[in-house]
Amino acid sequence: MMRIEPSDDRLAIKVRNLTNQFGTKVVHKDLDLDVREGEIMGVIGPSGTGKSVLLRSIVGLIKPKHANIEVFGTDLTEADQEARRVIERKWGVMFQDGALFSTLSVRENVMAPMREHLNLPLNLMRELACMKIRMVGLEADAAPKRPSDLSGGMRKRAALARAMALDPKLLFLDEPTAGLDPIGAGNFDLLVRSLCDALGLTVFLVTHDLDSLNAVCDRIAVLNAGQVLAVGTMEEVRANPHPWIQEYFSGPRGRAALGLS
Ligand SMILES: Nc1ncnc2c1ncn2[C@@H]1O[C@H](COP(=O)(O)OP(=O)(O)OP(=O)(O)O)[C@@H](O)[C@H]1O
């Protein structure tokens, strides 16, 4: 399998001076973050620290108070509608709860981004959707089912298939393994890693799951108090003496996930 090595000099995402504030609550204050092309970047931090808001700011669902955000070299803060659409076609997003349309079948869910962005005959979109469904490890008979007829793990895979609908170069995954049992979560991690290696994707992965961090991430960014407190490989981040980082990685769950006694 081909593995595209993350590149230091090519950035998929460049965030500078991101400030988000809701009322008097400052969520981000001049936050900077780089995500390199081809890497899986795990984003961690205490609950409520602004991981999802960061993701939503990058994909344009939240308008920050201030920010410079570039994706694949395009400044999204300056981009006109057309330039934005070009970039939007290059990414796929899997939201925290999957956010599948409950009244549509799995296949129709996967076709939804195609209908919005591609001008293709219906039959072709159906075929492409079925390919994506099989690509994420679902059986073909999942295609006509409603999300409510699937298990939690299968729904996650369906949501991933929809995020992959437009052959993205960049995937945003917001806590994709939340709510899965350890085996289901482990299988999902393997799926993400192998899709990334095969397709050369860049991934922005928000997670609380230490096993996922360990199994799939090339680098980790730790959010705390409105900024990126530390960024680097697992080893580099673990060496940071900040109390939250030490507690996170050296507490019983951290030690178990890292195979330490
Ligand atoms: N649209 C909004 N309006 C007002 N406040 C918001 C909005 N979205 C998020 N917040 C607040 O911003 C803060 C950060 O939220 P966010 O969901 O990004 O945290 P998180 O780090 O992803 O947390 P968790 O790990 O628990 O999912 C929270 O205090 C949240 O209540």
Automatic annotation (TrEMBL):
<dbReference type="InterPro" id="IPR003439">
    <property type="entry name" value="ABC_transporter-like_ATP-bd"/>
</dbReference>
<keyword id="KW-0813">Transport</keyword>
<feature type="domain" description="ABC transporter">
    <location>
        <begin position="13"/>
        <end position="250"/>
    </location>
</feature>
<dbReference type="InterPro" id="IPR027417">
    <property type="entry name" value="P-loop_NTPase"/>
</dbReference>
<protein>
    <submittedName>
        <fullName>ABC transporter ATP-binding protein</fullName>
    </submittedName>
</protein>
<dbReference type="InterPro" id="IPR003593">
    <property type="entry name" value="AAA+_ATPase"/>
</dbReference>
<keyword id="KW-0067">ATP-binding</keyword>
<keyword id="KW-0547">Nucleotide-binding</keyword>
<dbReference type="GO" id="GO:0005524">
    <property type="term" value="F:ATP binding"/>
</dbReference>
<dbReference type="Pfam" id="PF00005">
    <property type="entry name" value="ABC_tran"/>
</dbReference>
<dbReference type="InterPro" id="IPR017871">
    <property type="entry name" value="ABC_transporter-like_CS"/>
</dbReference>
